[in-house]
Each structure stands twice: as structure tokens, then as C-alpha cells.
Amino acid sequence: MDRVKGKVAIITGAASGMGKADAQLLAAEGAQVVLTDLNEVDGQAVAEAIGENALFVPHDVTDEDNWKAVISATLEKFGRLDILVNNAGMMAMGSVVDADLESYRKVNAVNNEGVFLGCKHAIPAMEKSDGGGSIINMSSVAALHGMSFIAAYSASKGAVAGLTKSVALYCR
Fold it and tell me: Are the beta carbons of 7 and 30 closer than 8 angstroms?
């Protein structure tokens, strides 16, 4: 226990699934956690269950102003940022022929652009918090070999893998 005691983490998509589990684990290991999601009811419930070391902020990861507000709320409440878990994501079924452009763009906006915006705004906050931190960007095996029935998802997660390498090189 206490592996991340004194650290502050933002977890996107934290109202359910892996994001919820990430927030619960980080809190159990001593971190103060900021949970974000579009699902305000479940997100708030998860934060309340974690307790005083948790804050829920409604968040559309595709909106740059929302990212600025999340970072600001994090710094205002906890005074620093050490960890970002870019977990929010979505999937749309469809091959490259069956998928429509609107759904392709939406999946890429959430899964790829949301990660870009998170890194863009978290890195400066981390640099001000003792100059370091950890960024976890959720990708998928679909990024490695593609999946014909979820073309947009495969493309978006491939972009996350490439972006993560660029972020790592920038931050080294």
C-alpha cells in the first residue's frame, strides 16, 4: 500500500469499467484522485465511495476548454498533478466500408484527440509539480494488428500508440 501516497491523479472515463478500477486502485494506494466522465451520476457516485481524497469533474475529453477546467480544478483542490490516466474511449462497429465518416470522426475525436489534449494540458501542470509525472495512455491490441469490424477504433488506438511514443520522447 501507499505506492503513490501524496500523488495526485486524473483518470478519464472513471465512472465505470477500467477507469473506475484505476481510480479505486490509485486511491487505495494513497493517491488523491480526480475522476472525469460524461456520466455525472455514476462518476459522482464513484468519487463519493472513494471519499475525501476524490473529486469528480464532468468532462468531455474532446473539448479543450473542458481539459483546462479539469486541470484547474485538480490544481485548485489538490495543489499538484502527478499522474494522468487517459482512459476515456469509445467504439463504433463497422468495417472501413460500412462505417460512416461521422462515427469515424467521433471515435477518433474521443480516443485520439482526447488523449492528445490530455497530454498537452497535463504536461505543463506536471512540470510545475516537482517537474515529473506519469502518463498512462490506454491503447489496444487493435492498434497492433487492426480489426476489420472496428476500423475506426483500430485506427484511433494506433494513433494513441504513436502519440504516446512522441510524448515519451518529448518528456525524456
Answer: yes
